[in-house]
Model the fold of this input.
Amino acid sequence: MGIKEWLIPQDKIFFDLFERLAAVVVLSSYRLVDLVDDFSDVKSKVHQIEQLEHEGDRITHEIYEQLNRTFITPLEPEEISRLASALDDILDYIDGTASKMYNYGITETDMHMVELAKLVQLSVVEVEEAVKGIRALKYPHLIEHRCIEINRLENLADDVLAHATNDLFHSTDAVRIIKLKDVYEYLEIATDKCEDAANVLSDIAIRHS
Done:
């Protein structure tokens, strides 16, 4: 056993928790796409996403509890905290989007919502794969590849938001403009949060490779 392996605990609890949290985020993104693709039984679908957000909160809390009682961690404590927060933020914005759609009484979705939701989904799948990569860090360049793709998807989401906003302001219904603009922006922010997570993962890959 090398000095690094002796000093760094082999208990992989943090990696297990991060992978569990990332899986919950991915599932919530699939639920979101299902919601915007088939805008029926909305209350039930929104509730399912809310339950996933609660599960994510429980896992995030467990990560912080482990951090508080672990003297030597496999990653820097700040890295663990930043990654937990970043993943939780993605989940919060997915849940927030669904809640706004329900609470605003939106009756139908549009192509912009569908496209943004699918970009969120694609982004979180990349985040999950990058999260799996930090367990061993044998191939840091693969994590970096995932992070570059997340950045590309976030740029696409910026473009969709710009087009959506432009289309929206052709309407004269001020209330509708406010509601839909808020939903569009929450979806786009979810991709921003994916990029935040990617930045943390990229930093981890560089520092520990």
